[in-house]
Specification:
The chain is of the alpha+beta class and 147 residues long. The protein folds into 2 domains: 115 residues, Alpha-Beta Plaits (2-Layer Sandwich); 29 residues. 33% of the residues lie in helices and 25% in strands. The chain contains 4 helices and 6 strands, in the order βααββββαβα. A 4-stranded antiparallel sheet has the order 2-5-1-6. The chain has a two-stranded antiparallel sheet with strand order 3-4. The longest helix has 18 residues. 7% of the residues are buried.
């Protein structure tokens, strides 16, 4: 099974203090441990929200809109922002939780763990032609990435 670990944090609070240089070494050891265990498929940190945008579909009350709206960062109205992610291949949610517990955080960060859905999760729900198109698309992506 694949799980995504999503790091969230308070961007304003983090910006108010200088990061401890040791955290970079600790994060390197944490990531290396996942590589050595053969569970890390991907992982990246994300730039501050000032370098991003939000595309919203519909209005704040959940109503429809003709066109999506785009709001440039920073996202001051959002308390917890995504700061990075990892994608792991492990046997269970418990294994993903075990890895998340080892992350070197100590300043109020949170790691949300979500199972990544596989095409098999949609069998019997999505039409066959959609499932076939999904399979073809995934094959093309594999070829393009050299995996």
């Amino acid at each position: 099974m694949r799980f995504m670990l999503v790091l969230t944090y308070d961007e304003a609070a983090a910006a108010a203090k200088t990061p401890d240089p040791a955290i970079f070494e600790e994060m390197g050891r944490f990531n290396q441990a996942m590589v050595d265990a053969g569970v890390l498929l991907a992982g990246e940190g994300l730039a501050p929200s000032a370098q991003g945008a939000i595309v919203a579909y519909g209005d704040a009350e959940g109503g429809a809109a003709e066109e999506p709206t785009v709001t440039d960062g920073p996202f001051t109205e959002i308390k917890e922002l995504i700061g990075g992610f990892w994608i792991l291949r492990v046997d269970s949610l418990a294994d993903a939780v075990s890895w998340a517990r080892r992350a070197p955080f100590r300043d109020g960060e949170r790691v949300q763990i979500r199972r990544v859905l596989d095409p098999e999760d949609f069998e019997g729900v999505a039409p066959d032609e959609v499932m076939e198109a999904e399979s073809e698309m995934r094959s093309r992506i594999e070829q393009q990435s050299g995996s």
